[in-house]
Amino acid sequence: MYLLCGMLVGVFVGAAVAPQSELSEARRLQSQGEYPRAIVLLENLLRDESDDAEAEKLLGWLYGATGKTELAVDVYRNLLSRHPDDADLHNSLGALLLRAGKLQEAKEELERAVTLDPSLVASHYNLGLLRFEEGSFALAARSFELAIRLDPDKPQYYFMLAKAHRATLEFAQAVAAFRAGLTRSPPVELARTARLELALTLKHDGLLSDSEAELRVLLAADPDDGEAMFQLGRLYVAMNQYAEAESVFRRLTEVSRDYTPAHFMLGLVWYREDAPEKALVSFQRLLLLEPRHAEAHYYVGMSHLKLGNHREAREAFEQTLLIDTDHVGANYNLGLLLAREGERDESEKRLERFRALGERRDRLQALEERVRWDPRNAKFHFELGQEYSRQKRTKEALLAFQRALEIEPDLAAAEIEIADLLASRDR
């Protein structure tokens, strides 16, 4: 997330003038990254010139930049008590509060900034970030679009707009926004991240060849880009091109020997290619790195099943369930093994657990599928939120209820559900 506090933009007009030599020195130190020295200088200056807005604003910026959020907030609140109609101050305070996770207070400040000065681009962008954080993705997109209209050259505005569109499954608009941002010469690392997200968006939209092309651009720039390699391997799995996937994941395990997802995916590819001996090697290497990886234990069991090693398979499934008691596949396969060994009571217990988990999983999948096919239906989002809530998935439930409210603002039931979830989370 990219916060644009706007703390030094257009805030010095009409301010009382501090002794220029000290203020200039503080700015010089700031420009050289010597923030602690600049802070000490300004704190000393303000002991004598306590009502100097220009020096205070710079000090607030420096506090924010050095992680002293509470001190920065105090500075801006003090300034606003004297300059209540300064839109930039409201924006700067809102950005700080957003960074601190105080969303309601941040919203009040940022909306005030937009009201006072609709042309203040940073406040529209920060308000978009806040709405994105809240899960109000359509409103977030609107704020990012306003920021772009005011300043069409900032690549991060386009990238956040793309994320907002992707969150509402508007993949074509997301792709267009990512591409627009990439044409505006973003910094190298920002461009890399955006291109990776573009590749994933294309994959989600079913444009697999286009996704592969973007990942190949990243690997041409850096052949050892582990994240790009991993996503390319996963793309090949989605395309059922297992030989290509195996090649990518083998290369990745050589580049990043401790990268557990690569070992897992390589094992999964070999398992799907009906090479259980090779799959076992990968999953066991992964477990040396991460002993409590439930899925790795599960696929150790599945590989042993393919090899006819029933005792080893049972031990692996039991180990899976020690880590994840709700693992659907482990409950089912352990139940079958127990039945084969004549342990009927324990077998029935595991198979009954499998049936209960399967019903819950099927119910959730059905609700998620309805939302995918009709993302503008508030009722579907609301019912999905209720299911997430029943399964104790609070974050997903909150997002679903907030999405329902975004579509249908008068849906009082969603407001009540959100209030109940927040209250139970805070207890």
Name the descriptors.
427 residues; mainly alpha; 23 helices; 78% helix; 0% strand
Describe this entry's structure for a reader.
The longest helix has 30 residues, at 344-373. The chain contains 23 helices and no strands. Mean pLDDT is 89; it is low at 5-18. It is an all-alpha fold. The two termini are 29 Å apart. Helices cover 78% and strands 0% of the residues.
SSE blueprint:
Blueprint: H1 20-31, H2 35-48, H3 53-65, H4 69-82, H5 87-99, H6 103-116, H7 121-134, H8 137-150, H9 155-167, H10 171-182, H11 188-204, H12 208-221, H13 226-238, H14 242-255, H15 260-272, H16 276-289, H17 294-307, H18 310-323, H19 328-340, H20 344-373, H21 378-390, H22 394-407, H23 412-426
Summarize the structure.
The chain has 427 residues and is mainly α.
- Cα(first) to Cα(last) distance is 29 Å
Q: How many helices?
A: 23
Radius of gyration: 27 Å
Q: Which band does the percent of strand residues land in?
A: under 5%
- Structural class by secondary-structure content: mainly alpha
